[in-house]
Specification:
Elements: E1 20-21, H1 24-29, E2 31-32, H2 33-38, H3 40-53, H4 58-83, E3 86-87, E4 96-99, E5 105-109, E6 115-116, H5 122-145, H6 149-164, H7 179-185, H8 235-238
Parallel strand pairs: 1-5
Antiparallel strand pairs: 2-4, 3-6, 4-5
Length: about 240
């Protein structure tokens, strides 16, 4: 865990931040993220992840892989950016990764711990994360495995939403100061400069008795032994009992 994040995560939530670090020796030995996205290592990672899931549906496996990657990177990155107003080096060109035996993410490595950025606007703070990190990850998985971009961006939204609205950071006393970040990232169809916001998606209306639905299905139901989750937007259409 990055030392600056320690006050935000308690014993129950520390795992959300454990895989993002800036240890110099780990960084030196890790694989540059662009090399993973552009080379045969990504095919190998998804192949191993497919064996882990015992699935030949590479679209769904790539979606599952993206959820694991975003779990490793996005919650701590969002905590630093949104809560601490701290700038991390998050452009894909600066990030390196260590792969797990199952093809997932063992560690995401940064070259340094960044610096405070208290006066930056939300657009400035998220420009690098959204357009120089998330965008190339989504593009690579969509191009190589045909996982729909909307699914992949929706997977990223789950972790962004978790930080901004759903209280994953249980050690955080208040989230009142995050409204601007929510409006930019989740609730605005356009970026301030006019670009289409890929994180925006019109929310489905939850059926009676359901508090929240994800904006996009993650395709987990296509993996062996899995089902529609309790917050799946497809759940009511298919009349299936969802697993919690």
């Amino acid at each position: 865990m990055l030392p600056i994040l320690a006050p935000l995560f308690d014993q129950r939530t520390a795992a959300y931040a454990a895989r993002l670090g800036c240890d110099a020796s780990s960084y030196a030995q890790a694989l540059p993220l662009p090399a993973l996205l552009e080379g045969p290592q990504l095919d190998d990672a998804i192949s191993r992840h497919a064996a882990h899931w015992r699935s030949g549906d590479l679209r769904a496996v790539a979606s599952a892989w993206s959820l694991d990657y975003f779990a490793a990177m996005l919650v701590p990155a969002m905590a630093a950016t949104a809560v601490l107003r701290h700038r991390l080096p998050l452009a894909a060109a600066q990030v390196r990764v260590v792969m797990a035996p199952n093809g997932g993410m063992a560690q995401v490595c940064l070259p340094h711990a960044g610096h405070p950025w208290p006066q930056a606007s939300p657009q400035e703070r998220y420009e690098e994360l959204v357009w120089q990190h998330l965008a190339p990850v989504v593009a690579a998985l969509n191009k190589r495995f045909r996982t729909p971009s909307a699914v992949l961006w929706g997977n990223a939204v789950r972790y962004i939403h978790a930080v901004l609205q759903r209280g994953v950071l249980l050690a955080l006393p208040s989230q009142d100061g995050l409204a601007e970040d929510r409006r930019l990232l989740l609730d605005s169809p356009l970026w301030p400069d006019g670009r289409t916001n890929p994180l925006y998606h019109r929310r489905a209306v939850p059926p009676a008795g359901v508090d929240y639905l994800h904006r996009n299905c993650c395709m987990y139901y296509r993996l062996p032994g899995e089902d529609y989750c309790a917050a799946c937007p497809l759940r009511s259409r298919h009349g299936k009992r969802a697993c919690d």
